[in-house]
Amino acid sequence: MNEAYYEFGTAADRWDRAQMFFEAKEYLTAARILGGLVEEAPEQVAPRLLLARSFYHSARLGRAEEELRAVLELDPVESYARLMLGRTLERQGLQAEAATQLRMAAALEGDFGPRES
Fold first, then answer.
1. Which of 5, 80, 86, 109 is the Cys-Cys partner for 101 at CB 3.0 to 4.6 Å?
2. Mean pLDDT of the chain
3. 110 φψ region: left (φ > 0), alpha (ψ -120 to 50), beta (else)
4. What is the 8-class DSSP label of residue 2?
């Protein structure tokens, strides 16, 4: 695959560029940049999470799920990754597993459901 201009530069330059493409809703381009960043620093949560979001918004749900699970291996209490994983599983028709992830995300955010007075 040929590299495009946006795949060059420092990691910080590419991170900024990936965010710009994501914000412009150019999710596949953002994913292409982020994939390189994740390869270089697989232990970093932020690029993986944005990569997962890029896959989610471009309806690459299997890839989004993979990245979200990788994020949660690195940081099991990353509540936004749990929420995204729940939404991704919902879109794939996996309601029971989605519900579990969504409950965990809510608990991590301190939302324990309706309170009785």
1. 86
2. 89
3. left
4. P
In the prediction, which pLDDT does 117 show?
41
Answer for the pair 7, 32: CB distance below 8 angstroms, yes or no. yes
Residue with the two structure tokens 């879109």 = 91
Angstrom distance (rounded) from CA 75 to CA 72: 5
CA distance 99 to 24: 31
pLDDT tens digits, one per residue of 91-115:
999 999 999 999 999 898 887 555 4
**pTM of the full structure:** 0.84
Alpha carbon distance, N-terminus to C-terminus of the chain: 61
Largest interatomic CA distance in the chain: 62
- For the chain, the residue count is 117
